[in-house]
Design a protein that fits this description.
The structure is a homodimer.
Chain A lengths: L5 E7 L2 H11 L4 H4 L1 H6 L9 H15 L5 E10 L8 E12 L4 E10 L3 E12 L1
Antiparallel strand pairs in A: 1-3, 2-5, 3-4, 4-5
Chain lengths: ~130, ~130
């Protein structure tokens, strides 16, 4: 992995993922589970959990890099637009820095939904183990 | 919610959560699924997914605050120690800043496992909606 390398992956926020997330983490906040509440707050429907995107980042780090001996050291994410059920997200990442002395790679990323709307962005530090 | 307010919650990384996380996010990286690989890398066994802790943060933000009309705006997490299956984690959070003009609350947090070992820490920005 070297500076400038890019990665791309498609994710979809399916009903299985949404319901599975609620099953395991028990977050039933009304913004995410009550369409009437979410609409009162100005959204088109229940807003998907931001941390579903962090689950996608887990998949990216664990499965989409050219090596498997990796471990997430830190993560940052900023949510800029709501994501709804069945939204298809395109994930774009680029290696921003490689710190060979400490076996660390810094990756910048963002998620887009059609048409070219950035919904979240951030940074991931990945250690080579 | 005001500056200095503190929160605490106990979480356990159960088998249901671990297996559920794999089911929904499909991250089967060997560090998290192959005990032999993880031990070769110096760990005591499969390391739990860091993003399980982010799922716990979703629960905290959605369910443990005194108000429900909240939305995570951004999150940061730094992982400092491995978490293993069935580890019991204590989550400590404190409101670091309240920005009333933009209805934003900044919370600093960390997760500990017994005996007083900090396993992860970070910051969450929560918007009041």
């Amino acid at each position: 992995m070297k500076k400038g390398d890019t990665f791309q992956h498609s994710f979809k926020v399916t009903e299985d993922i949404y319901k599975g997330f609620i099953d395991i983490f028990k977050d039933r906040n009304p913004l995410h589970t009550d369409a009437v509440f979410a609409k009162q707050k100005g959204f088109a429907g229940q807003v998907m959990f931001g941390n579903i995107l962090n689950g996608f980042i887990s998949y990216f780090a664990g499965e989409c890099l050219p090596i498997k001996n990796v471990m997430i050291v830190s993560q940052e994410i900023k949510y800029s637009k709501p994501v709804y059920l069945n939204d298809e997200l395109e994930f774009y990442a680029q290696i921003a820095d490689v710190f060979e002395s400490v076996k660390l790679v810094e990756i910048k990323y963002h998620f887009e939904k059609s048409p070219k709307v950035k919904v979240a962005q951030g940074k991931i530090q990945i250690g080579i183990i």
